[in-house]
Specification:
Length: 277
Amino acid sequence: MSDRTLIESISVVEQLGVGLPLLAWVGVVLAVGAMSFALRHERRVAVYAAGAGAAVLAFAGHLADYLVTLHRSPDPSLAANALWRATVDGFGIEAAKVYGLSGRILVSILAGQMFAFYLANARRLYPRRAGSFLEFALRLGNRARTASQRALAVLTWSAFLFAGMQARCFYVALVNAIDDPARADRMPSVPAVTVALLLALSASCLILTYATFRACPRTPTSHREIDPAYPPVARPASVLGVAARHAESLDHLTVSGVVVGAHTRRHGPELRSRSRP
């Protein structure tokens, strides 16, 4: 980001006042609540363990960036952070420090939830069928039949990217920790590293999803292909009871050519054996 762009963004935020920092903080809180609601039916411990690991790594990066920022600019009003500067103007320095740390904690929690959401819903990205990695990539997500299912597939992909993009904080902390300006200028720019990280995460998400797709058991039937992303609808017990009583009332119940419950008499060899003297 150039100095001119940074100055322009700071001036825009300062014109909006403390409303934008508060809106950003409340937005993250609402996002954490929404992801908690989305994961309410997930029961796999491994999914939550992986999400917790992602949250810890994200917080480590955010904490490093936070501490380096305070070390370089003990006064947040002098930091190159538009939200911090607006918070200092509205509530003071100490409130800005609390705002910055609490916001980073919330974003780290959200990153862990996003990664858990990806693991719990990766099957929504599966194609109907794919015989190779290239075919898988070209047909990614075509299993979704409705607009809501397609939206959930996009959200699943975006959740993985959001969780992985928190690694960017480590690079930002590294660049900010360099005291030599000439050395800092030789480092790749933050936007370039952000784009490279986004591309690497997209490739990683595709490879990981393909690996789970290949490992997932799929049992096709003669009528339709079983879709592991959408479990079968459970039948009420009353319906099953009526079906069972109806089956018992039949003399012969044939399922796929196999006779069930029919007691047929043997013919052929048995009759010929009786006719022998």
